[in-house]
Amino acid sequence: MTIIFMHHDIIDPDLKKKSGFYGAGAEVYKVSVRTFREQLAGLAAAFPGQAPALDGKAPFFLTFDDGGVSATEIVAGLLSEYGWSGQFFVVTGFIGMPGFMSASGLRALKAGGHCVGTHTVSHPDRLRALPYAHIKREWVESRARLQDLLGCDVTSGSVPGGFCNRPVREAAIEAGLTLLMTSEPTTRCYATAEVTICGRFAVLGRDEPKVAVALARRVHARRIKAWRWHTLSVAKSALGPVYPVVREGLLRLHA
Question: In CATH, what number is assigned to the domain containing residue 215?
Fold first, then answer.
């Protein structure tokens, strides 16, 4: 089975505000350029001649959420050194805003062989708690915006916050998505005739490069990210709207 990694911004510590969202919660996910380089080198050495792919056979696949400018300014170039491509999920309401990719940047990313999907319009902290009509609008409008910009069909999306429930799934299906990614650390993909839902392993700024390699090698002792997921899942259900306030502390606790 393929290990799917979930990255966010790849940016040096002193430039964290220059790419993507910022704030305590967002900064936990920002990985330095040096660390990311070492992750890629480690994966390439561990799996010579194998490129990331989402086919169930490749050892790993790389995804990047939010749509920060580091995708075009840093990530695409580093991936090209290995001849690799990745999947980028974009918050369409922030396209062209400071710290986020422009329309031309997105087109360049697509032209470079990368996949582009939706991460909703506004990145709600608790998407699954919203009325169904609102959830559907987040998927429909973001997908339409990307298709207009890229001139191609967009059928993949990732769930903000990573937590998926039935309304989120059904709204995504109605919007025309056939691939949906969460943040549940599992290699299993749930597939129906309408949609495939895959979990991912979050890569945090504090993770050593060797953790990614260990995960891709299926070293179960390294699946510490499962503890992060279960802690956050319980907290989100129990705390409701207060959850975003305490999420950053929980992430640091299990980093």
Answer: 3.20.20.370
Quickly list DSSP for 201-229: EEPPTT--HHHHHHHHTT-GGG-THHHHH
User: Is residue 243 scored above 80 in pLDDT?
Assistant: no
**Do the bridges between strand 87-90 and strand 115-118 make them parallel or antiparallel, or are there none, so unpaired?**
parallel
Residue 243's domain comprises 3-253
The pLDDT of residue 247: 47
To the nearest 10 degrees (0 to 180), the angle between helices 132-150 and 103-111 is 70
pTM of the full structure: 0.88
Task: Report the pLDDT value the prediction gives residue 52, as an integer from 0 to 100.
Answer: 95
Total domains present in the chain: 1
SS3 assignment for 99-124: CECCHHHHHHHHHCCCEEEECCCCCC
Burial class (CB in 10 A: 0-12, 13-18, 19+), 181: buried
